[in-house]
Amino acid sequence: MIRDWQNFLVDHVSEWGVSGSGEWHFLLHNNYHPHCSNINVLWFEGKSKFPAVVTKLYREPEILRREFGNLKRAHGLAPAWVPRPLHFGQQGPFWSLWMQGLPGARYAVQTKHSPATLRSMIDMVAALHSEVAKTTAVPAPDRYARLVSTPLRAVVEFAESAKVKEGCAKLAAAVPAEWIAAMPAIPQHGDLFCDNLLHHQGQWHVIDWESFGTIDLPFYDALTLLLSLAGATEKGPEAWDATLVQQIPELVQRYANALGLQATAVRQMLPLTLVNWFYLQWCDGRQEFSQRMYGTLDRYFSSPHAWEKAFLGK
Length: 314
What we know:
- There is one protein chain.
- The chain is an alpha+beta fold and 314 residues long.
- The chain contains eleven helices and eight strands.
């Protein structure tokens, strides 16, 4: 199969506008998850240290078809940060998504994050959102059901924590349909863990666009990113790195300022982010992660003021 994929690459590099003058090398990566697995093939041209082309392979087409459509949309709106989609189709027993490779390595979870790096990261998210928001249509009429009532119902029915049930009821009262309608519709990446960022010489790129646009509430990506840096699916604010906690309110305010938003909306948006983070994983059948996210929700609703203070500083 590798030979067939390589021949396909060689036949199309000119059409795709990808340099192909040298010898091609590849690296196979089996991306295993309990809910689904795929193969990634990184294609290197000559002696380049970064792949010129990346291929994602699945047995079933649905996930790749969705990501290919999302990539076309996102790259068209914000090409500075998004891989360029090249091709989607079936090859032998696999469905394949081909995209242009990008320079950089995945941003690794670290104990310490420099203030400059964190500001650069948040500035990138804000700039990306500014671009995708420029052509966003009027929010869909099902927005409240899609982002509030349906995810909350899924959380309430998932397990029996009294704190979670009580917290979901309070959150529903705090975010009526009118409040949601007043929030600008900004399509979010939807899965902006820190390891979905590539960083190289001060430039950021964002990969894995399967969930783009599923959520269009501002703050979602920025909060998800900060939560992933803090390790929030495993522990509460009292156990987060103190230097990171000191920086989070400034980063939230920085994002809000860049998009003309009120940072105080995080009081409602933070629990909504956690609820929708759970819901996206639950919808995709990621049972183990759903269980972890439910535990995160239980920790949040047990001490919401501590989480609010971590993100707003007051």
